[in-house]
Amino acid sequence: HAELVISAARAGKGVFCEKPMAITLEEADRAIAAAADAGVPLQVGFNRRFAKSFRTAHLNVVEGRIGTPQLLRSLTRDPALNNPAASPQWVIFLETLIHDFDTLRYLNPGAEAVSVFVMADALIAPDYKSNGFLDTAVVIIRFDNGAIATAEASFQAVYGYDVRGEVFGSAGMLTMGNVSESDLTRYLANGIQADSQRLDTDLLRDAYIAELNHFADCLRTGAKPLASGEDARAALAIARACIESFQQGRPVAVSRGVGA
């Protein structure tokens, strides 16, 4: 979507962009620069930042309620596989797991990914693996604050759309989005607290409303969006490293400079 972002920004329009904002880091840099030069807000559709459970978890981490983040987990499981023949190459990293990469950064505030290692396959549609279509993946991410994270994706959640997050820290744990039990659960020294929410259709309903309201506020006030172009670039850098890790079968450093 980078060229559309650039065109809209040059026309003086604030931009709300679906992820991925760009496919390469160079495209992402040009999109970010165009919005900055035009003085318009650039927000990317990382909706989990605006879901009540994830937003509350982020604030709990910032406030130190679970101590220092040590282990993190984020997963996305889609209910059904779209036509793999019509799907872009590396879609599981660039369009699906990119949500999880952003979520893990959001739940580990101030930290950046330094390396990734990928294990992935085409378990649902194996005939398309040679075309770069993967439908099942687990990514291990090392952050510069020492935390270790996993991101997981599948396109065959027959029980419904499944989005979850977890942060384990030195003083407790937070879990988000378990559709069968609770929306946000706090594991602290004084006990376990759970806020219940059950239907997958309700899982991110509040997030879609909140992110659009936030974008409208940014348009009115000129404030920087909470899901910015820079956030999109950071998630893209992780996704690009994942592609390289899968191709090479080894851990790969996450680039912070301009790259392919």
From TrEMBL:
Recorded superkingdom: Bacteria
Protein name: Gfo/Idh/MocA family oxidoreductase
Keyword Zinc included in the entry's annotation: no
Keywords annotated in UniProt: Oxidoreductase
PANTHER family with a match to the protein in the record: BINDING ROSSMANN FOLD OXIDOREDUCTASE, PUTATIVE (AFU_ORTHOLOGUE AFUA_2G10240)-RELATED, NAD(P)-BINDING ROSSMANN-FOLD SUPERFAMILY PROTEIN-RELATED
InterPro entries: Gfo/Idh/MocA-like_OxRdtase_C, Gfo/Idh/MocA-like_OxRdtase_N, NAD(P)-bd_dom_sf
Family: Belongs to the Gfo/Idh/MocA family.
Domain Gfo/Idh/MocA-like oxidoreductase C-terminal: from-to ranges: 63-254
Annotated GO MF terms: nucleotide binding; oxidoreductase activity
Start and end residues of each Gfo/Idh/MocA-like oxidoreductase N-terminal domain: 1-46
Signal peptide: none
Keyword set includes Oxidoreductase: yes
A Pfam family hit: GFO_IDH_MocA
Species whose genome carries this gene: Pseudomonas syringae pv. actinidiae ICMP 18807
